């Protein structure tokens, strides 16, 4: 196994172009597990730890450009206001030691349906910035990024540079079910973001389908219901029947399997419960914020 | 003799600092928390090779052929061995029944069975070489449960049994069967106003010790081998290893290496023989370290069990009878199954007075992973079931579950189902009273002015509830565990104690073969020596086979038995020291002849406190050394038809109250508090006692809500051999564990002490289950409870 250590992003892209089978490694929290278990024996490891800019983030006017290697700890501690859903997801990642090493780039590279960041990225509406030496930079919308079980839209010569995530324009929530209270791989997970600016709701479901997915039918139903009832403007409590319908549609968006971590039936059930609860929490926050704004005006 | 129930007077040395009853700190504690402690996996030897084991990929198959040629051709490979390369006629081993092949011969009987071994100059080379060994399997049907094991045309896991149990078992796929019949359960059932029945399932728990199996075998010039090894019982290993190597026991030297936990999982051999074989074959030191994945295949697990119970009671809340049948899955090899059957049956009724019982326990041979010793050893599975039954009965009778248990609680003098009287304190009702009397944790602790504190809620930082669906439940349980090896086993221990002057100070050296696996024996032995010999400096000699057997570090027995042996040896040393003193100084003071003499603070003193001589002067130019075996009271075998017999040495009791918060919609559980009360007879080291109780309690919690090895019922293959999917409690899953320690002396035991390590593992699980039932109203007849079971989505 050859260990490639590019000193810059350009060198990294050149190395990847020269050795398309090279496996990029940053925090190593996924890759090293696979190597230690001998599930994978790559010909080349491409160490990205010397590429400093991957550890940086920039908060712009509307979006955060989050370097692929920014560790979960930094997301939790430094980007709570801008990326509340992703910060909640970061809290649920493994242990403090792993949160100090692992970043969103690794989650995206592995593209496991159980990756903790995915539901939050889907709900917030992210774009993945990837690059190759030959073709330069391109942006992949998160909705088009996950292409199969542990497969993504990257070309063999491409590397993930950053993720662009819209700064929260409304409340976001993230919930993950595991069978212990910390350090656990998701049995299933759910992310929800309210986007008052566009009067839309977005969702993300983890570990309950072959890839991370959005509950599009549920979103469409809720968007219509909120619009129709004037809820964005009147800030009324969403009717329980609408919440239930939304939750049922989220559960129906799952396509889960039975495995050692849980049954398909449980995953579908739990996603319904999480959808109901996260909608209730975010809508309550939205109403609170609205009341505060009105009170101040 | 002290009165029963009164704390025992310490005969000697109570004034010496660091003696028994003090919470002296572990000598290895700082090293362990700072990462400096050398575990068996850290060992290194110049020029050493690395051993690797090739394990079966299927559970039950004939081995058609093994081709090792490609592995042998790999550069860096020094040896590849299969069954055909074993050097003597002894090719099997086992704790009681020698049914386990050192390397598979013609057949594999479980997933992960060792088939071949490799030695190479690098661990990765050894792994690759093992992967190049070609094994051609012809798969056989698998035996996975009672139905497939006992069917008329069942496949036999072992075709040619000649062990001493085959004569009394009804089927060759039953390892051992123990009925226990006392009184007339059928007649007593007619007197019952209420009868409850239940079928219970206990999942397969793993010891999950953190230091994987590992050791280093170094060939010696005399043709022997020196094995540095993490184990629970050096001499038991030695007895099994030497015949396979074709060496006399004195040519197999063994030294205990740093042990990273055991919990029963190191009672059986793992890589011991393999490392020695490779070292003798290559003439080089060979180290073997399992990784976590291999560790799940490298040791036995707790027996999963199916338990069927019938309990009856009169309207006034008195038990009339208990009938039960306990089916333990022993897996492919016997390991400790016969003794686990003995425990499950003899302790199957729990700490209650019941005159009419009809009990049957069996262990099966199947193609599932081999099961054997684990903390609680058969008593754990039974406690889970009989405590569920006690709650069911209390509910039927409209009685408080604690009150109902107290009405039936055994006490000193009660007869066990085996007919054996409980002849030391059995404060079962008192332990229940104490856990019930502890203040309850406040309700809704997650509520704060800034919203819900999710850390206090089920799901924790996974943020699954802010209080929605959360219901509190409270449950109680109590259990009974035997201490020491039972059923007539010669359960002795040996201690060698030396006393001499080193650098102007009296020093005691304690040498035993006791395996320190984390239980704290090294701390306690030094305390005993200080108390008995009045010295402050005690050296604990490394454990090895240069001294007689200390028995196993299991069955809650080491402080009792090896502690007893150390105490006994110290007393003999003390007598010899006093003889020397009388000889040297007797003429200077009449008290040498007339007074009761003690060793305290480095001096010989009278019982009146007058100092007669410094130990330095007494021992000037003379060292005193004693090596002596020590035995507790003998026990008897259980009658094979009736189960009657004085089979146990001592009993240990603990009670728990569990407080849980259950997210009833998601089926997630947070255990808020697990209060425990336990009688320890005498706390030789109170801090260690609390640690043992909290650890045992947590291990019981683990199997209540998460810990389970999942075996595919169709293929008998293990599906979750890693800490990714075999979950053990993290600190965030571990509740507050207030502990109330009783010290009621057992007059038969050294210092009145009671073995403590296992009892808290028993009652913890059923208390948590009872609390979850209390919160949800569900029946919950299996453990661990998974979210599916609480949400109807299993």
* C-alpha-based Rg of chain A, rounded: 19 Å
| Radius of gyration over C-alpha positions of chain B, nearest whole angstrom | 27 Å
Distance between the termini of chain B: 57 Å
Structural class of chain B: alpha+beta
Q: By helix and strand content of chain A, what is the structural category?
A: alpha+beta
N-to-C CA distance of chain A = 64 Å
Instruction: Specify the CATH class of the domain at 172-296 in chain A.
Output: Alpha Beta
Helix content of chain A: 25-40%
Poorly predicted residue ranges of chain B: 1-11
CATH third-tier fold name of the domain at 172-296 in chain A: Enolase-like, domain 1
CATH superfamily of the domain at 172-296 in chain A: CO dehydrogenase flavoprotein, C-terminal domain
- Spatial arrangement of strands, main beta sheet of chain A: 4-5-10-6-7
Mean pLDDT of chain B: 96
GO molecular function (chain A): FAD binding; oxidoreductase activity
Protein name (chain A): Xanthine dehydrogenase family protein subunit M
Keywords (chain A): FAD, Flavoprotein, Oxidoreductase
Domain FAD-binding PCMH-type (chain A): 1-170
Structural write-up:
The complex is a heterodimer of chains A (297) and B (794). With 297 residues, chain A is an alpha+beta fold. Chain A has a domain at 172-296: Enolase-like, domain 1 (2-Layer Sandwich), CATH 3.30.390. Chain A has helices at 9-18, 31-36, 72-78, 84-91, 96-101, 104-110, 118-124, 216-228, 231-234, 240-252, 264-296; strands at 2-4, 23-25, 44-47, 57-59, 63-67, 126-132, 136-141, 146-148, 151-152, 159-166, 172-177, 188-195, 200-206. In chain A, the strands form 4 sheets. In chain A, strands 4-5-10-6-7 form a 5-stranded antiparallel β-sheet. Chain A starts with a strand and ends with a helix. The relative contact order of chain A is 0.11. The model of chain A has no long low-confidence stretch (mean pLDDT 96). Chain B has 794 residues and is of the alpha+beta class. Chain B has 4 domains: 29-37 and 492-631, Aldehyde Oxidoreductase, domain 4 (2-Layer Sandwich), CATH 3.30.365.10; 40-140 and 208-298, Aldehyde oxidase/xanthine dehydrogenase, a/b hammerhead (Aldehyde Oxidoreductase, domain 3, Alpha-Beta Complex); 146-206 and 301-372, Aldehyde Oxidoreductase, domain 4; 429-483 and 647-791, Aldehyde oxidase/xanthine dehydrogenase, molybdopterin binding domain (Aldehyde Oxidoreductase, domain 4, 2-Layer Sandwich). Helices cover 25% and strands 25% of the residues of chain B. Chain B has a 7-stranded mixed β-sheet, with helices on both faces. A 6-stranded mixed β-sheet of chain B has the order 9-18-17-16-10-33, with helices on both faces. Chain B has a 4-stranded mixed β-sheet with strand order 22-30-31-32, sandwiched between helices. In chain B, helix 13 (521-533) links the parallel strand 24 and strand 25. The longest helix of chain B is centred in the C-terminal third of the chain and has 28 residues, at 558-585. Chain A binds chain B through residues 36-38, 88, 91-92, 173-185, 187, 260-263, 265-266, 268-270, 273-274, 277, 280-281, and chain B through 127, 291, 293, 458-466, 468-469, 665-668, 670, 705-706, 710, 719-720, 722, 724-725, 727, 729-733, 786-788, 791, 793-794. Chain A: GO terms for molecular function: FAD binding; oxidoreductase activity. Chain A: This is Xanthine dehydrogenase family protein subunit M. Chain A: Residues 1-170 form the FAD-binding PCMH-type domain. Chain A: Pfam families: CO_deh_flav_C, FAD_binding_5.
């Amino acid at each position: 196994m050859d260990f490639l250590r590019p000193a810059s992003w350009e060198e990294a892209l050149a190395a990847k172009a020269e050795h398309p089978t090279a496996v990029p490694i940053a925090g190593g929290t996924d890759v090293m597990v696979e190597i230690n278990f001998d599930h994978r024996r790559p010909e080349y490891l491409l160490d990205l730890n010397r590429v400093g800019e991957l550890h940086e983030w920039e908060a712009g006017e509307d979006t955060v450009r989050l370097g692929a290697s920014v560790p979960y700890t930094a997301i939790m501690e430094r980007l709570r206001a801008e990326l509340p859903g992703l910060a909640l997801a970061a809290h649920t990642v493994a242990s403090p030691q792993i949160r100090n090493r692992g970043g969103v780039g690794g989650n995206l590279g592995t593209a496991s349906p159980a990756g903790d960041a995915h539901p939050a990225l889907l709900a917030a509406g992210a774009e993945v910035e990837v690059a190759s030496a030959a073709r330069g930079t391109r942006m992949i919308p998160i909705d088009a990024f996950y292409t199969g079980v542990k497969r993504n839209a990257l070309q063999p010569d491409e590397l993930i540079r950053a993720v662009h995530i819209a700064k929260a324009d409304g409340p976001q929530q993230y919930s993950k079910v595991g069978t212990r209270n910390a350090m656990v791989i998701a049995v299933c997970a759910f992310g929800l973001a309210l986007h008052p600016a566009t009067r839309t709701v977005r969702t993300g479901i983890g570990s309950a389908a072959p890839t991370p997915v959005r509950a599009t039918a549920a979103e469409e139903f809720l968007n219509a219901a909120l619009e129709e009832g004037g809820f964005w403007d009147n800030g009324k409590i969403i009717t329980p029947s609408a919440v239930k319908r939304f939750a049922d549609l989220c559960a129906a968006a799952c396509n889960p399997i039975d495995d050692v971590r849980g049954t398909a039936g449980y995953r579908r059930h739990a996603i319904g419960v999480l959808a109901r609860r996260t909608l209730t929490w975010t809508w309550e926050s939205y109403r609170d914020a609205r009341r505060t704004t009105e009170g101040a005006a | 003799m002290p009165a029963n129930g009164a704390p025992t007077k310490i005969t000697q040395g109570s004034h010496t600092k660091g003696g028994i009853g003090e919470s002296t700190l572990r000598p290895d504690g700082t090293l362990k928390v700072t990462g400096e402690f050398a575990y068996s996996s850290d060992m290194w030897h110049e020029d050493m090779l690395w051993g690797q084991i090739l394990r079966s990929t299927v559970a039950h198959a004939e081995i058609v052929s093994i081709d090792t040629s490609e592995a042998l051709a790999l550069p860096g490979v020094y040896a590849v061995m299969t069954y055909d390369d074993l050097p003597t006629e002894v090719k099997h081993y086992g704790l009681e029944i020698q049914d386990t092949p050192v390397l598979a011969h013609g057949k594999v009987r479980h997933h992960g069975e060792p088939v071949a071994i490799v030695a190479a100059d690098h661990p990765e080379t050894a792994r690759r070489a093992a992967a190049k060994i070609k094994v051609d399997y012809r798969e056989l049907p698998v035996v996975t449960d009672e139905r497939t094991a006992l069917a008329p045309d069942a496949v036999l896991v072992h075709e040619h049994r000649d062990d001493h149990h085959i004569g009394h078992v009804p089927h060759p796929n039953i390892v051992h069967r123990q009925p226990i019949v006392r009184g007339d359960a059928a007649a007593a059932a007619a007197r019952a106003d209420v009868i409850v029945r239940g079928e219970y399932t206990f999942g397969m728990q793993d010891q999950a010790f953190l230091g994987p199996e590992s050791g280093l075998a170094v060939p010696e010039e005399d043709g022997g081998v020196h094995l540095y090894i993490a184990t629970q019982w050096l001499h038991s290993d030695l007895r099994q290893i030497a015949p396979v190597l074709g060496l006399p026991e004195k040519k197999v030297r063994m030294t205990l290496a740093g042990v990273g936990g055991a919990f029963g999982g190191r009672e059986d051999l793992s890589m011991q023989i393999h490392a020695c074989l490779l070292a003798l074959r290559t003439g080089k030191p060979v180290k073997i370290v399992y990784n976590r994945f291999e560790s799940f295949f490298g040791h036995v697990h707790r027996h999963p069990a199916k338990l069927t119970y019938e309990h009856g009671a009169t309207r006034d809340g008195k038990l009339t009878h208990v009938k039960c049948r306990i089916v333990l899955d022993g897996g492919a090899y016997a390991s400790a199954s016969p003794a686990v059957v003995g425990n499950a049956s003899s302790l199957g009724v729990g700490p209650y007075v019941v005159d009419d019982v009809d009990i049957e326990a069996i262990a099966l041979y199947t193609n599932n992973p081999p099961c054997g010793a684990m903390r609680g050893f058969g008593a754990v599975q039974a406690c889970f079931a009989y405590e569920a039954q006690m709650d069911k009965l209390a509910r039927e009778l409209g009685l408080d579950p604690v009150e109902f248990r107290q009405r039936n609680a055994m006490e000193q003098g009660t007869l066990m189902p085996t007919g054996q009287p409980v002849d030391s304190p059995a404060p079962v009702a008192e332990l229940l009273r104490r856990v019930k009397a502890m203040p309850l944790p406040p309700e809704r602790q997650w509520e704060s002015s800034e919203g819900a504190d999710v850390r206090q809620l089920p799901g924790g930082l996974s943020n699954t509830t802010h209080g929605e669906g959360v219901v509190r439940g409270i449950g109680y349980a109590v259990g009974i565990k035997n201490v020491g090896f039972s059923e007539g086993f010669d359960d002795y221990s040996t201690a060698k104690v030396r006393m001499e002057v080193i650098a102007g100070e009296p020093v005691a050296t304690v040498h035993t073969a006791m395996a320190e696996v984390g239980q704290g024996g090294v701390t306690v032995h030094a305390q005993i020596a200080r108390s008995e010999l009045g010295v402050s400096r005690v050296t604990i000699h490394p454990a090895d086979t240069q001294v007689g057997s200390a028995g196993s570090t299991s069955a809650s027995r080491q402080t009792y038995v090896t502690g007893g042996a150390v105490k006994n040896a110290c007393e003999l040393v003390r007598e010899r020291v006093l003889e020397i003193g009388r000889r040297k100084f007797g003429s200077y003071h009449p008290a040498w002849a007339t007074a009761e003499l003690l060793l305290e603070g480095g001096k010989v003193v009278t019982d009146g406190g007058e100092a007669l001589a410094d130990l330095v002067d007494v021992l000037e130019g003379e060292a005193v050394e004693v090596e002596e075996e020590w035995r507790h009271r003998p026990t008897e075998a259980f009658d094979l038809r009736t189960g009657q017999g004085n089979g146990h040495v001592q009993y240990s009791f603990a009670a728990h109250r569990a407080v849980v918060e259950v997210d009833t919609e998601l089926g997630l559980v947070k255990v808020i508090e697990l209060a425990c009360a336990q009688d320890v007879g005498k706390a030789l080291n109170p801090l260690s006692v609390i640690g043992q109780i909290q650890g045992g309690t947590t291990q019981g919690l683990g199997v209540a809500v998460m810990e389970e090895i999942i075996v595919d019922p169709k293929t008998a293959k293990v599906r979750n051999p890693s800490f990714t999917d075999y979950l053990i409690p993290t600190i965030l899953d571990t509740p507050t564990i207030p502990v109330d320690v009783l010290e009621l002396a057992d007059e038969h035991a050294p210092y009145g002490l009671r073995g403590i390590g296992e009892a808290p593992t028993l009652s913890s699980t059923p208390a948590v289950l009872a609390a979850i039932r209390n919160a949800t109203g569900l029946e919950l007849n299996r453990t661990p409870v998974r979210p599916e079971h609480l949400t109807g989505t299993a």
